[in-house]
Amino acid sequence: MGCMMSTPSDPLLYEAIRSKTKHPVNGATHYSRPAWPSSYRISDANGNDPTSTELEDKRREFWDTQPSYGGNAEIWQALKMAAETMLTPSGDMTLAYAVIESADVIVAKPDMTECYDTTGARYDIPKWVLRDPSNLRHKPARGGGGNLDYSQVDVMSLRSRDDEGNVRPGGEGNDDAGSECGSAISQQDAVATTFDGEGGTNARG
Question: CA-based angle 126:129:134, to the nearest 5?
Fold first, then answer.
């Protein structure tokens, strides 16, 4: 009896794997159609789920500091543009592909967590930079007047309120979408992240 090979449940990730080819510049293994990483969970050193504000801060810190560890600044800029494009509500992958190709980035893993430039310099990108974790908690943006990112909040977690702000009968109770997180994502997460879901430890080498 032959063995069955499992395929990712995410169609885009499956297509990314199928796009495996050789980079035209130096012949390195290259996934020309990278996709979002598979679903995962992340927490801080105390086991707290991250909030959207904390994750945005960590992503900003990542892009501000990673170029100082080596690599080409233009490649880092291209990777940032592609990653931010993937994070938009529409997730314009066509534009992300175009950015990657124009910069001659070699995508060594189909989820874009490991890339190289044509000189051989390596660029590691954590999953949490490319895709929101499944346990992300949403809270009002700083100074944002309590606005939530409705494109990502589970509709069942939104409580129905009347004009005076009281919870209406039948609304969902004990919603923690706006609660404070005990502590920010640990500084070490910028180097290594442990995932409770799919995948393992992703560290910059």
Answer: 95
d(CA 23, CA 26): 6
Query: Of 55, 50, 43, 46, whose CA–CA distance to 176 is shortest?
Result: 50
Within 94-194, strands assigned E span 106-107, 114-116, 122-124, 192-193
CA atoms of 3 and 91, how far apart (whole Å): 35
Other C-beta atoms closer than 10 Å to the C-beta of 193 total 22
- Residues paired with residue 167 on neighbouring β-strands, in sequence order: 161
Indicate the pTM of the whole model: 0.63
User: Of the given ranges (40-54, 105-119, 176-190), which has the lowest mean pLDDT?
Assistant: 176-190
Residue 111 is encoded by which pair of tokens? Answer: 């989820």
DSSP 132: -
Find the Cα–Cα–Cα–Cα dihedral 191, 200, 75, 50, rounded to 10°.
-60
Angle between helices 73-87 and 93-102 (to 10 degrees): 170
> Residue 70's Cα: distance from chain center in Å?
22
Query: How do residues 62-71 score in pLDDT, each as one tens digit?
Result: 999 998 889 9
Residue 18 to residue 151: CA distance in whole angstroms: 30
User: Taking 80 as the threshold, does the pLDDT of residue 175 lie above it?
Assistant: no
pLDDT in tens, 98-147: 999 999 999 999 999 999 999 999 999 999 999 999 999 886 545 443 33
Q: How many residues does the chain have?
A: 205
CATH top-level class of 11-136: mainly alpha
